[in-house]
Amino acid sequence: MVSSPPSTSSSSSSTHPGPGRIPSRSENDESLHPPKSVFFIDPRWASSEAGDESPHDPFSTPDASVPGTPIPFSTPASVSALRSSPEIREVPSNMRSRASSSSQVRNSFMPPPAIRRTTLRESTLPNSALPNVPRLAKRARSTMLTGETEKPWVTEKDTYAKLSYWLTYGVALIGIAAAVIRCYFAWKQTLLIGNICPVMTDEFDTFDTENTWFQESSLGGFGNGEFEMTTNSPNNSFVKDGLLYIVPTLTSDVIGYENVLNGYTYNITGCTDKNATACGAVSNSTAGTVINPVMSARISTRNSYSLQYGKVEIRAKLPRETGSGQPCEIDIMESRGNGPEYGAQGDNYVRGSLNWGLFPWLNGVSKTFGWWTNRRKTFADDFHIYSLEWTPQFIRIYVDSRLTYMLTLRFNEPFFKRGDFPAIVANGSNYIPTTDPWAQGTPNVAPFDKPFYLIMNVAVGGTNGWFPDGVGDKPWLDGSLTAMTDFAHLQSEWYSSWPQNIEDRALVVDYVKMWKLC
Q: According to the UniProt entry, which residue ranges have a biased composition of type Basic and acidic residues (predicted)?
């Protein structure tokens, strides 16, 4: 009796026999075996019916009694139903595959066999050989709302919510409108210089000391008590590779250090100072006098070009030592050569100012100055463009861009009033009443209503307060009568901080340009 094939039902009560022994290659003549069909032909039925009926034509159209093609994933018919079908025949023994007598042949026009699902409970394999088949997840219950949902925010109007909505956007629009208005009025109030025409341009292909630059030679200190003497020596001012160098050097390199301190008389060559006492000096240790310990250069356009209203532009790299200026002037740029750690603004600051006053010792510069600072570098690290714009309405001094301005001053009140000078000042034992010396000049503009010329120099030290007492390692006091002597005696200390490279020690100028209003 042939046992019935296993059912394809997924019922947990059905069983599945274990796998048979896999035949070895020596037992089979063929290397491949045809698949065993779920729908097979019963040999007993074929033998009993072989003599009564002719073989069924596989290409014939099945009649109505033949069951339709089963759906592969539906529950298949029972085995008994398959046996009772007249279209199912068992393959005779002489037609079976040589590979195995148990191999079964399926009609090529039959549907694919249904694949039986196996569950863990159906398997008769030992626990160690069970496949790791996950259980089917139970379908989650739907959480979708089936009834009617209430939406009170649709039917009920929230006044406060609407107010907050419009208030938020209203404030944003007000902010945008305020920004536009501010930008408009700032643009309207921007100070413009107007049309300008070129006056002078020097890119220093040569050092023109005949027609452009005047070299000043003096030991007088230029009103600031400076410690250098200015010379016309090529050691202190020269042109190289299209750049102008103004370099401070030691006087001891020329006359010796001992002569700087004592027992030497020095007369400067080609003195240009009108004060004869500023053309020579005597060193005397008993009197506490010395020869100016530093030589430098000071050049100007005093005899060639001047400017009343216009623009000046200088591209330069600053030195790494001390610098100075003098009263009654427009300082396009002033800077100290001390490092960024200096407590009174070192070489990471540049300052623009207007120097003016009733007397040299009564200066109003404290009311007309400003500065710009470089946070990450110093102005001695690279070239920068220093500019002055000057009109009858304003003065603006800036570095590189108008946005980085050091000083912007409108001429909107008299300078005598701006200075807030006292009615009477004391000069020793004398009392001097103060009057407006610019009353006859251009209202609100005088004393800056006259032509000015350009000066470039590198100064060392001074007693005018540019280097405050008690800041850094300053080796002198401004009020001391021996300030320059004290400075000269400590030459070994301050000179060791000077760069030995000429390019770092010098003020290096790339070009100078001047324009006038036209």
A: 24-33
Task: At 64, list the tokens.
Answer: 């109505």
Overall pTM > 0.85: no
Q: Which residue has the tokens 């080796």?
A: 475
Give the separation between CA 238 and CA 244, rounded to whole angstroms: 6
Look at 2-6, 50-54, 163-167 and tell me which has the smallest mean pLDDT: 2-6
Q: Domain segments of the chain: what residues?
A: 1-128, 158-190, 196-517
The residue among 225, 237, 229, 226 whose CA lies nearest residue 281 is 229
Q: How far apart are CA 148 and CA 176, in angstroms?
A: 45
Q: How confident is the model at residue 30 (pLDDT cuts 50, 70, 90)?
A: very low
Are 349 and 339 in contact, with CB atoms under 8 Å apart?
A: no
Handedness of CA 337, 342, 343, 349 (dihedral sign): positive
Helix (H, G, I), strand (E, B) or coil at 127: helix
Q: Please return the burial class of 245, using the count of CB atoms within 10 Å of its CB with bins 0-12, 13-18 and 19+.
A: buried
> What is the per-residue pLDDT across 166-224, written as a single tens digit (0 to 9) for each?
999 999 999 999 999 999 998 888 888 889 999 999 999 999 999 999 999 999 888 78
pLDDT at 78 over 60: no
Task: From residue 325, give the alpha-carbon distance in Å to each of 45, 65, 408.
Answer: 128, 123, 19
Q: Of 508, 211, 192, give the one whose Cα is nearest residue 379.
A: 508
- Is the C-alpha dihedral spanning 152, 154, 155, 156 positive or negative? positive
* pLDDT the model gives residue 357: 87
pLDDT in tens, 36-63: 544 444 444 444 444 444 455 555 545 4
Q: What is the pLDDT of residue 321?
A: 56
Contacts 24+ apart (CB under 8 A), 496-505: 498/320, 498/321, 499/320, 502/245, 502/247, 503/245, 504/319, 504/320, 504/380, 505/247, 505/248, 505/319, 505/320, 505/321
Joined together, the tokens standing for residue 188 give 């309207």
